[in-house]
Amino acid sequence: MVLTALVAASAPACRGDSQKTNASNSSVNTTNVADASAPTDTGGAETTSGPQRAPTTGAGANVGGPPTSLPAIPFRVPATGAYQYHERVQPQTGDPAERTVRYLLSAVKRKPGVIRWDEADPTTGAVGKAGDHYEEIHDRDGLFLVASIVAGTDECRWSPRSVLLPRAVIEGGELETTSTCTVPIDGKPTALTLTTKLKFLRTHDFTVAGAVRPAIDVSRVRVLSGDSEGPFTITSRAVDTYAFDLGVRVRTEDHSSNKRDGRPAEDSTRILTLTSAP
Fold it and tell me: Can you tell me the distance from the alpha carbon of 17 to that of 220, in angstroms, rounded to the nearest whole number?
């Protein structure tokens, strides 16, 4: 069973919107928020409005504070194509493992605003049928996870969609969602629950492949629970960094703990950093 990837392995994208929300109303549960109509994909074109960036000092360090009262920085709808990441995983015991991870991003036909990330072979670029892939949606409320397809399970379509980078968090707030799905694991239907809590941390400048880009850091706590060969809980605590002009996550540092009844917890730390983009 490979459920940890449901919590930590997706490579999400991000998009802003010029509309603003009241920061005092940003800490809400989005399970009662209806999907807004998705914008037209501009194929990577920049917009001139979006969230705001806090001031920087020195080598681009951010002084903190929500980004709602400072000069706007443009957003970019993610370009389709290959995104390459460097991954380092440090298990609780043993040596760290490092590898190159490549994802192919594509637009999903007949689903406006939905993009799909397929894990591909880092050398050939081929996408295998057993590879992990994820679907996310961009709309006026931000970015959300709608489906996770992980090797060893069938498609898990989250209801309601799970929060990734909502507008309320971009504007300095917090948000939480609780989503569910049912997938066959070990030959029987298994109900999964995914609770995600996000909190704005800061905006700053982040260097990707030699280019300095405006970015946002978001605190993320995910808890995946279910019952397969006994009750289990996988908790993931992370800081995600998204680059506004690329529209994707450029770095994450994730600490995960896999707990199962009657067994010691399995802990690990995973750092994923973008090294190249279309």
Answer: 21
d(CA 32, CA 29): 7
- For the chain, how many helices (H) and strands (E)? 2, 15
pLDDT in tens, 66-125: 444 333 444 466 889 999 999 999 988 889 999 999 999 998 888 888 889 988 887 777
Is 245 in contact with 74 (CB distance < 8 Å)?
yes
Per residue, what are the HEC states of 117-147? EEEECCCCCCECCCCCEEEEEEECCEEEEEE
Rounded-to-integer distance, Cα 136 and Cα 122, Å? 22
Question: What pTM does this model have?
Answer: 0.74
Residue with tokens 């996408």: 127
Query: What's the CA gap between 234 and 257, in Å, rounded?
Result: 6
Neighbouring residues of 64: CB distance < 8 A, sequence distance ≥ 6? 54, 202
CB 45 within 8 A of CB 235: no
Q: Which residue has the tokens 């807004």?
A: 36
